[in-house]
Each structure stands twice: as structure tokens, then as C-alpha cells.
Amino acid sequence: MFENLSEKLQRVFKNLRGEGRLTEEHVQESLKEIRIALLEADVNFKVVKHFTDTVREKALGQEVMQSLSPGQQVVKIVRDELVEMLGGSNVKLNFASQPPTVVMLVGLQGSGKTTSSGKLAKWLAKNGHRPMLVSVDVYRPAAREQLKVIAKEIGVKLYEGNPEDKPLALCEGALREARNTAHDVLVIDTAGRLHIDEPLMNELREIEAKFQPSEILFVADAMLGQDAVKSAQQFHEQLGFSGFILTKMDGDARGGAALSIKHVTGQPVKFVGTGEKYDALELFHPDRLVSRIIGMGDVLTLIEKAEEVVDKKKALELTEKIRTDTFTLEDFRDQLRQIRKLGSLEQILGMLPSIGPFKDVQKAKVDEKELVRIEAIIDSMTPKERRNHQVINGSRRKRIAKGSGTSVQQVNQLLKQYVQTRQMMKGMKNSFLGKRMKGMKMPQMPF
Q1: What's the half-sphere exposure (Cβ side, CA atoms, 13 Å) at 171?
Q2: Same domain, 110 and 245
Q3: What is the DSSP secondary structure assignment for residue 198, as one 8-state letter?
Q4: Which pTM was predicted?
Q5: 151 near 202, Cβ under 8 Å?
């Protein structure tokens, strides 16, 4: 989403770092480029003005101008101000002292409230809670049925109520059911409209007044840019809410909503949706997003994702296989499967820094279908072939290609990649680092 903004900012920073001595003219020119980059990213113009004024004031201070590396100082100021613009730090959910905690999701129709309700419930369950879902959208056709399908898919309890129940009755029944069945969080998926209207706001105010939710989260579509910010501001003025869930952060829009929404409304972004799957909801960390925007990557999130999905037993087995040089095609396939659990390759590469050894990695064109083809080829081999690639002669390669719906050339290419991977691992084993790894217990390996 921030690809264009990221490229432009990194170009400005590169020019700044190249200056041995910084002048006011350098700062003004750089801020002009940054202003244009932010406006083109659809950041609110008032936010851009406040941001550039603050950066200019700090960048022209004596401490920066007389520094041995003034360019780097300015980069740090820009980074810190971007983080501040996004809210400063991660803001966690508020939980009631006496469960169940009530969380209301509000927003316009089509923003992704129902899907986000399911994602939030799954995130809560994964983090040690017992959530329950309820839909009070009695207007949109099949809205309650949609949440029922989602609840079943993610394995979370849904309060259905009766078909004729009104929103308040549904909330009351769901809260009673949550108490009786020891569910500690009730997530309420409310009705949306194509635009903000009085009947909708009155209904939400009634629910808020009667059930006193610990959190009211506004679900905003990040791809709508300033329209999302504008509707959020109107919603907040009429109802008031405690934070945001920004959906479709994996899209290719300009991303200005994410950079404007906290400054304009005063409320923090608490979660971001990063994909279509129900586990594609992440806590929002302003500093990590800014690190990605300015080219420093987001290795912390990548490690956290790896720790969630990696089978530690398999990781230890892989370490031993690398040490003993017994890495097979089956192991090769298993590692690809582990990587795919982390998300799309594009997302993974986006978390790597665009400097140092990873400088050109993000620019690589990623074909997700290639991983599917590799798995199909290995699946078409016999157990003997997977354990010993050297037995795969010409006739076997033809059979494998036919069985996997690929060509002999693609089979050859895979075998070449596998041999190169083994050689790389063998080299690592013989290196100083490999020798130090020998015999060490490695409880957490990302891959």
C-alpha cells in the first residue's frame, strides 16, 4: 500500500545522508519533496502541514545543524514524527474488570465489519480468551447468516437468537448467554448504512447506553483514503468510539487513511486487516509500520509470525538434518509449507529491510503459483525418490512431470534448486557459525 510513498521518502533520505553539512536550503528542499509524497499518498492536507511544520522546526535547530551527521538526524526526526502521527505506540484493547467484556464494531456498510468481527474473535481466541459473536444487523439480507458461517469456520460460539428479535433484544440475549457459558468477550457486529443517518446513530446510541461496551471500534476501509477519514470523523462526533480497525491494508491504494486517521479523530488504530483469511488481523504498531515505510523493514512482526506457525519439533529436526547433511526433498517441501503459513511471499518480502543484503529482494517479482508447482512436483515423486534425488533418471522425470501437470524442464529446475539449497546448507554447516550451532539447543527457529 505504501510502495510509492516509501520509494520517494527513501530517495529524499538518500540525498540527505549524502550531505556532509546541512543547510536550511537542504531542509526546505527535502520537506518540499516529503510534502508532495505525503499528499500524493492521500494524507490529509492539514496533517501534512502540521507534520512538515514540526519537522522543519526541529530540523533547523542548532543541535541538528551542528551535528556530525545532520542528514541522519533529520531522517530520525522524520521517522519519530511519522510514528507520532500514527499514534506513538500500540494501544491495547480495554477489558472489563468483570467479564464479559463487550466490544462493538461500527462503521459504514461495506467497510468489512462482519469479516472483521470474525477476525477479531479469532484473534481473541488465539490470545487466551473465550469470545462469543452476535450480529444485530437485522436489515441487510443474510447478514446474520454470514456471521454464522464465519463463526462456524473459525470455531467460535455464535448467539443466534430468534429471527424476529430486534437489536437490543439480541444484545441482551447474547450477554446473558455469554455470562451463563463463561465466555469472557462478547463481540457485537452492528448494522451499517451506505451513509450516516439518524436512525442508525440512534440505534447505536441505545446499544451503547444500555450495554456500556468497553470498546467501540470503528471499522474503516483503508482503500477509501480521505473518504474513510471523513466518515470516521462524522461517526465520532455523533457517537464516539475508542479506536479503529483498518481493513484492506494489503491493498494497493495510497494509504493516506492510515496516516491521517489518528491525527484527525484523536482515536488510535488498534488493529489492521492484512488479508482475506480470518487470521489476517494484526495489532497495529506505529513504529513498525513507519520502519517499513522508510525502508527499515519489520523484522519483529516477521519473527512473531514465524513463532506462531513454526512447528518447533520440525525446526529442531531440520537443524539436525542440516548438521548431518541428510536434507531431503521431503524436508524441502516441508520448509516451503512452513513459509507459506507466514502469509503471501509479497507480504514476507515487504517486512525485510530494503537496505544491506536485502536491498534488491523486495523488487523481486514473486509468483505464488511457483510454490504450488514445486509442491505438486514433489508430491508426484515416490517416497524413495523424495528421500534420494539421485535415483531420478530421465524416465522418472517424465513420469513426475506428467503426474504433476508440469514439464520435464520444470522438474529439472526444481531438482537444481534443491541441490543448490543443499550445497548452501552444507556450506553453512562447515562455517564458523555452523560449528558453533553444532550441539546447541535451538528452541526457536523462524524457519
Answers
A1: 25
A2: yes
A3: H
A4: 0.65
A5: no
Confidence at 224, pLDDT banded by 50, 70, 90: confident
Higher-pLDDT residue of 312 and 23 is 23
Assess contact for 38 and 53: CB atoms under 8 A. Answer: no
CATH of the domain at 318: 1.10.260.30
Which helix or strand (DSSP H or E) is residue 306 part of?
helix 299-309
| End-to-end Cα separation, the chain, in angstroms | 26
Distance of alpha carbon 382 from alpha carbon 95, whole angstroms:
53
| 237 exposure class (CB count in 10 Å sphere: 0-12, 13-18, 19+) | exposed
Is residue 94 in a domain?
Answer: no
Query: Worst-scoring range by mean pLDDT, 123-127, 324-328, 334-338, 442-446?
Result: 442-446
Write the single-letter amino acid at 284. Answer: F
Handedness of CA 263, 223, 280, 317 (dihedral sign): negative
Q: Same domain, yes or no, for 316 and 272?
A: no
Q: Cα–Cα distance between 365 and 346 in angstroms, integer?
A: 9
Closest-CA residue to 132 (of 172, 186, 175, 190):
186
Measure the CA–CA gap between 377 and 396, rounded to whole angstroms: 12
> Do 175 and 100 meet the contact criterion of CB atoms below 8 Å apart?
yes
| Total number of domains constituting the chain | 3
**What's the full length of the chain, in residues?**
447
**Could you list the residue range(s) of the whole structural domain that residue 402 is in?**
302-437
Domain boundary among 296, 312, 334: 296
Shared-domain flag, residues 77 and 204: no
Q: What is the pLDDT of residues 313-358, one digit of tens each?
A: 666 676 777 677 788 888 888 777 776 666 665 555 555 544 443 4
The set of residues, in sequence order, having a beta carbon less than 8 Å from that of 151 and lying 6+ positions away, is 118, 121, 133, 157, 158
